[in-house]
Amino acid sequence: MLSLTHDIHCHLLPSVDEGSRSYAESVRMARTLEELGVTTVHATPHQFRFGNDRTNDDLRHRTRELTTHLDAAGGGLSVVAGAEYLLGERLLDALARDEALLTWSHVTDAGAATRVLVELPLRTPVVNVARVAGLFLRRGIEPVMAHPERVTALATEPTRARAWRAAGWRFQLDLLSLAGTYGSAARDLADVYLHEGLYDHVGSDLHRSTQLDDLVTAHGHMRRFLASQEPRS
Q1: Could you confirm whether domain 6-229 is CATH 3.20.20.140?
Q2: pLDDT tens digits for 69-123?
Q3: What span, in angstroms and rounded, lies between the C-alpha atoms of 132 and 130?
Q4: Taking the domains of the chain in order of start, what are their residue ranges?
Q5: Whether the Cβ atoms of residue 40 and residue 33 lie closer than 8 Å to each other
Q6: pLDDT tens digits, one per residue of 200-220
Q7: What does the alpha-carbon distance between residue 19 and residue 45 come to, in Å, rounded to a whole number?
Q8: Which has the closest alpha carbon to 176: 221, 115, 136?
Q9: Torsion angle, alpha carbons of 99, 104, 109, 110, to 10
Q10: pLDDT above 90 (res 159)
């Protein structure tokens, strides 16, 4: 069951990528997330993109510093250190070298699963996506595809979605897609995947405080959808 209390994709760490620019902005973003009912958020800056290739220890340290600022501001949001890895040569090299990635444990009906957030190139053609899932699975990690509704390869060939999921990919809904932040095509495909039950996680993919109004709108859409799925007496 999808939950709005657990946001697995958020660019909350300040001055790491094109996300939050300051601790003050991170506090504003975190406050809105809490007001929307989010209790746990994964701080997932870009990795292996925009020249970012930070160590896990560095990202954990930055997450602890952010938590200190949020606590001082009176917040109660739990922040998990994570990353949004770009599927490309650097990530494939990391898998080949058995490098440690920032993963998290997710409880499923079958038990606990180790998962990691991965972003596909949005507009560049992608190949061997199903095979890459196998590279993760052989390491005991389930790859979670960030915002698949924004990937051009799926917009042009929607049938790939089920094939990729069958290969082992899990899908993360970008809440801002529901608000139309990324255009009507992404919004419509997100709605299709949502009603087909293809999503395993939700994430705000929140980058800046300027997106907060859209996020509030998206949470409203999602709450109405979840309410429509509840069994009626």
Answers
A1: yes
A2: 999 999 899 999 999 999 999 999 999 999 999 999 998 777 889 999 999 998 8
A3: 5
A4: 6-229
A5: no
A6: 999 999 999 999 999 999 999
A7: 8
A8: 221
A9: 20
A10: no
Q: Which helix (H) or strand (E) holds 111?
A: strand 111-119
The pLDDT score that the predictor gives to residue 110 is 76
Q: Could you tell me how far CA 118 lies from the centroid of its own chain?
A: 8
Which residue has 């507009």 as its token pair? 123
- Is residue 23 helix, strand or coil? helix
Q: Which amino acid belongs to residue 185? A: A
195: CB partners within 8 A, 6+ apart: none
First to last CA, the chain: 19
| pLDDT attached to residue 111 | 80
For residues 36 and 218, give the distance between their C-alpha atoms in angstroms, rounded to a whole number. 10
Residue listed under structure tokens 């997450």: 63
pLDDT of residue 156: 81
According to the model, what pLDDT value does residue 77 have?
A: 96
